[in-house]
Amino acid sequence: MSRVNMEGEAMKMRHLTRRTVLASALAAPAIARAQGDFPNRPIKLVIPWPPGASADAFLRTIADQAGKRLGQTVVPDNKPGANGTFGAIALKDAKPDGYTLAQIHTGVVRAQLMAEQPAYNAQTDFTYIIQLSGSAHGIVVRADSPWQTLEELIAAAKANPGKLNYGTFGPSSVQNMTMVDLQQRLGIELTHVPYRGGSELYQGLLGKQIDIIADASGWIPLVQGGQFRLLVVWGSNRMKLFPEVRTLKEAGIELVVNSPYGICGPKGMEPAIVKKLHDAFKEALYDAATQAVMEKFSMPTLYQDAAAYQADYKELEAVERENLKRVGLLAKPG
């Protein structure tokens, strides 16, 4: 290259460098202003469950409390169906500006691993903000059913393979996956009936369309009201509301299901916005109004910051992959 050409190229590079520096200098205040003004309009929180579910009640309350701290309304947006993955799907296509959030739960990871062509990647498509709580799961039957204990239900299922049926929120829900696991461990066969939401599920049991429900704590009022009987809980400890009901481990089954969940945004969110959201939701989590709802549904406080929440979900993927492989539900590589 001639000296003239070399000098020309050098001049072009200096011009490009100056333009880049100028553009960055102009952009930086705009970004800072956007972060400083956040939020300046309502925030949408996608709840992947129908109104009336226990998780819905909790998320609506914490959204209200977080909104008070952020100075803007956090608007609940119920999108039930698709095994509770519509929140994840909404984040995949949303702008990373902090105005679209969603509950991300263990079923999101599980559904991805079960899909031949998943709609999202839980490790790369979200910004993890805060882990909040988990679900108190259990198995309930009608109060007038013949089964007083878990052992009696298991005996009936062994005597009548495939004749007893149970309801959950879908094939890849944690409730169904746990029931599949239990059937394999216990050598029984039950028939699965998926439902879209809590009210339909509970009406199905009350109307004798199904024999058993495996679900989170939305059944608590019906157990307290005498319509349902709680046979066993899946968590690490007995529920305070029903101290006489054993855990799976106490019933001789080495299985614990806590199902931690939290709130995420789209990938690529600015750290300052993530921190502002995290701080508001953390304060909201410990607010008396939120804790009252959690007490009502026996929900544990499982707070973790963004980094710990993301790290746990990375480990969760490996665990879920092995669980799905064991029960024959892991999607085949494309």
UniProtKB/TrEMBL annotation:
It comes from Reyranella soli. PANTHER family: BLR1237 PROTEIN (PTHR42928:SF5), TRICARBOXYLATE-BINDING PROTEIN (PTHR42928). It comes from the Bacteria. Belongs to the UPF0065 (bug) family. This is Tripartite tricarboxylate transporter substrate binding protein.
